[in-house]
Amino acid sequence: MSRGLLLRFENLVQLHGACWQLRALSSRKVCGAQWKPVQSSAHPVGSLLPHPHLWPKDRLINAALSQCRYLATKEETKKKEKKIPLTRGEVEIRPMMTVEELARAMGKDIDHIYEALLYTDVDLDSVEPHSILQEDHIKTIIQKSGMKYKSAKLKEEKERKNTDAVKRQVVNCAFWLPPPDPAVLTPRPPVVTILGHVDHGKTTLLDSLRKTQVASTEAGGITQHIGAFLVHMPSGEKITFLDTPGHAAFSAMRARGTNVTDIVILVVAAEDGVMQQTVESIEHAKNAGVPLILAINKCDKPEADPGRVKKELLAHDVVCEEFGGDVQAVNISALKGENLMVLAEATVALAEMLELKADATGLVEGTVIESRKDKGKGPLTTAIIQRGTLRKGCVLVAGKTWAKVRFLFDENGRAVDAASPGIPVEIMGWKEAPSAGDEILEVESEQRAQEVVAWRTYVEQQEKLKKDLEVIEAKQKEHRLEYEKQQQELAHLTWRQRKAVLYKANKHQMFSRPKERTEKDHNTLSLIVKGDVDGSLEAILNILDSYDCEDECKLDIVYFGMGDISENDISLAEAFNGVIFGFSVNASNSIKKLADKKGIKIKLHNVIYKLIEDLKDELNCRLPSAVVETTIGEASVLDTFSVTVGKNKIPVAGCRVHKGLLDRKMKFKLIRNRDVIWKGDLSSLKHHKDDVQVIKTGMDCGLSLDKNLEFNIGDEIICYEEKEVQQTTSWDPGF
């Protein structure tokens, strides 16, 4: 008895000690987050009371501690798994919110948004978590969820400071800069642009003035770039000549040439007279406000008629001096060098009357005449300096690129130290090739140049963003109207009937997509265009912009740029199943081998109209063949009857051939009242009772069709042959 009481007392003491240890541990927060959750395998303390023999001290403490660990870590897990509290107040909304962003703002999951969209006209099949919702749909979802909305305050973007570079003559920094001091103005060479129709002798004229062979190096004898040259006259005068292309494709080049010129020499062939590009050149000169000098070329030819040329020009307000006007006219022969000095003296005299002077001090200003890429030198530009003196080390900005001038070259490729106003020069050191016609401005430092380029890039991005938003809004409006129209048509149906109608309408598309994709690829010509200089590339792209036959074959310009054909061009052509067109560029042997291996076409040309002709041939190859019907014979139905074959009665027409012949192997068609009511093959062709293959003109025959169709007296039977003919594109580039 006493032994049992003693054991029970010891157990109570052990339990009391264990409880005190647990309290001490809990007061020191030993049961906190430093213990990892474990699943307790211990029994509750109460279950141990009837079994005193199972109460060793260490087991009791371990059981209690493990239970404490389990309870503590369970609370932590609940905290971690606690969901984001649902927004019961107002939900901030903003334009262009996605499904995922709206769900996050509402404190809901994406499925809740999908359920709420059932109350709208949105097609759930096309909605993804990243899909953008319209503002009225966002408001509907929030209202159906029992919430309110408010427009989020958009962060007002600080107005960016204009850091662009400008000319010295215009307003800058809120004040007018003074004009140049007349004392610092010095005479400069006149910039003379030679304009005229293609093949009227512009380059030959300049060739004779420079005593070099320029024309012989031109592809096809046709100028296809702007050439800027400095010509030293025997009298010591200097004249800067711009030789512009006369071909119809280079209208933009001619316009750019007149914008930087002082005098225009209009070259007209004496035997051809005024042509299309002659009139265009006159318009360019008038728009630029530049005086003209008329050079009537090829006067050494027997059929030359200078008088006729002068009279034709009167219709275009070009009045020569002999008719009381102010335009000097000089009869020349550029090929034989006749009267060239008279033309030069007339140019110098007009330049003296214009009193051409420029400020050779201060920051440089100029215009990019042409730009190109050179393998060894990188991007190069031909420029005319209009103000200041350009030297090595100058930092220039043009368009969205800049340069620290490393070298300067003259028109012969010789390095020069400086270029003064009116002097053409080739500039090396550009980060990227600027566009022809861009304005060149000198800035103080490289950091300033980067600021200018960053500002211009920013302005362009803002303009592009504005245009993109307008396109997106127009597309959304179009889709909205189309959807509303479709919903109105299906409004009287139940939702099950609507689903069935939409499924039937779209069923054919699901099965025809692979075929449609193949046809689309076949009817699309992807182009990679490479040119030697920016101006040539511009002319080609302008021609491609006139393509208006998208219904026949889609024209897709994947990439365009300057320089020779590269591996990157081959990769692009392979990815888009395209063709590479190169103008005055080269492709190395390794590139050609790579293209042959991958089945990529490379078309290289030096004359622009040949490139366009080749492009049209490529378009023709993409067009499907057209089926052309050629009539072989005609017959008239004179009588009708029927014959019995087995249990069937076959209609038979008694005919007489009045033109050509009827050949049973060919196709036939039945015409009634000028309408074709049947096309197909004959089932029989007989002359009297004999089966025949051919019935000639004037012969009678009986025939039956492969379809039981009744004949009428007076019907026409036409025998014809079908041939597949390659279609040609209807695109007209204008030359």
UniProtKB/TrEMBL annotation:
Residues 462-489 form a coiled coil. GO terms for molecular function: GTP binding; GTPase activity; translation initiation factor activity. Its main location: mitochondrion. CDD domains: IF2_eIF5B (cd01887), IF2_mtIF2_II (cd03702), mtIF2_IVc (cd03692). This is Translation initiation factor IF-2, mitochondrial. It comes from the Eukaryota. Belongs to the TRAFAC class translation factor GTPase superfamily. Classic translation factor GTPase family. IF-2 subfamily. Residues 187-357 form the Tr-type G domain. It comes from Pardalotus punctatus. The keyword Coiled coil applies.
